[in-house]
Structure formats: structure tokens, C-alpha cells
Amino acid sequence: MALLSCPECGNSVSDRAPTCPNCGLPVSEVVQSARVDDARDAAIYAPAEAYLNEHRVYRAAFLKFDANNGRPVVTWSWVALLFGLFWYLYRGMWAKAGIQFLVVTFTAGAAAPFVWLYAVLYGKYDYYLYAVQGKQMW
Ligand SMILES: [Zn+2]
């Protein structure tokens, strides 16, 4: 048995009762209202849980991007410096890893320092776009 809050009068209602004892609202509607609340809570808290599951290095960067309304902020990524596009692949950002690979290949390596620098300075932002906003691209 669960106690639910009646959306009409705010009274506590058992989910086994036929109606709200205070205002008479059918319990099916009380249950429906509780489901809508649960879905809304999940929508609010799921992104927060994604933050909590991240390493603190990313969490700190994500908060900077949030503070900038989701727009890019230059950060420094040691892992991108060490592993470049392999880090992108490891983090699931295969589209940007592919772009980096193609750019470096078609310039016969000439663009590699710039691509690398981009990854170092914007890697965390790219990961923010991917992990928080669900975007492979910008
Ligand atoms: Zn009620």
C-alpha cells in the first residue's frame, strides 16, 4: 500500500481506497497524477545523476559550461593532450574522432597540431555536449 497526495485537495490517499476520503476524487486519477509527478522528477533529476556519475574533473568543467549557459569555455584537458582522438573514441564521441582523423589525414598531418590543440582546449566542452546535451556535433 502506498500513500499518495491527492492532486485536488492535497489530502493523503491510500492507493487501495476507491476515492479520496476528503474530496471524492477517484483514486485512478490520484495514481495518474502521481505518475506524472514521477516522470517530471525523473526528467529533472536524470541530468543531475549524470553529473554525479562523472569524474570530478568533468563535473567541475560541466558546471563552468552551465554557468556560461551551455556555451563553450576554454578548459585544459590532460587526457586529450595525451590521447587525442583516442580519448574521443574512448568517451564515445566517434563522430568528432572521425572528423579529427579525416582532417589530419587529408592535410598529411599538417593540421595535426591544430586538431590536437582544439582537443586539449575544447575536449571537455565536446564531452559536455555529448554527455549532458546528447550531441555528437556542436
Ligand atoms: Zn482529495
Main sheet characteristics: 2 strands, antiparallel
Global morphology: rod-shaped
- Alpha-beta classification: mainly alpha
Biggest sheet, spatial arrangement of strands: 1-2
Strand segment tally: 2
Order of helices and strands: EEHHHHHH
Mean pLDDT: 90
Q: Measured on Cα atoms, how large is the radius of gyration? A: 24 Å
What ligand molecules are bound, each kind once?
zinc ion
Total domains, how many?
A: 2
Spans of 5+ residues with little confidence (pLDDT < 50)?
none
Report helical residue fraction. Answer: 55-70%
What would you note in describing this structure?
The protein has a two-stranded antiparallel sheet. Strand 1 (3-5) and strand 2 form a beta hairpin. It is mainly α and 138 residues long. 61% of the residues lie in helices and 4% in strands. The chain has 2 domains: 3-47, no CATH class; 54-131, no CATH class. It has helices at residues 27-53, 56-67, 78-83, 85-90, 94-106, 112-131, and strands spanning 3-5, 12-14. The chain is built from 6 helices and 2 strands. Bound molecules: zinc ion. The site of zinc ion (ZN) has 8 residues, from loops.
